[in-house]
Design a protein that fits this description.
By secondary structure, the protein is α+β, with helices and mostly antiparallel strands. It has a domain of about 45 residues. It contains 2 helices and 3 strands; from the N terminus they run ββαβα. Strand 1 and strand 2 form a beta hairpin. The relative contact order is 0.20. The mean pLDDT is about 85. Keywords: Plasmid.
Amino acid sequence: MIVREGVGGREVLLDASEVETLGGLCLQVILASKAKIINPSTKAEELLSLFGVQEILAPASPATGEA
């Protein structure tokens, strides 16, 4: 977990590079925390798409392609 200070307050970022499974209860906690997902594994991207919550993926950095 990364907490980044910004103009609008704190932003919580979760590194999902090693995610292989994601359950509904875990997803509820992530959504309630308003965290953004960075470095999602292919499986994490698939699972978030299945749940219909791709909007929690942090935008990729234009310079590096990473979030």
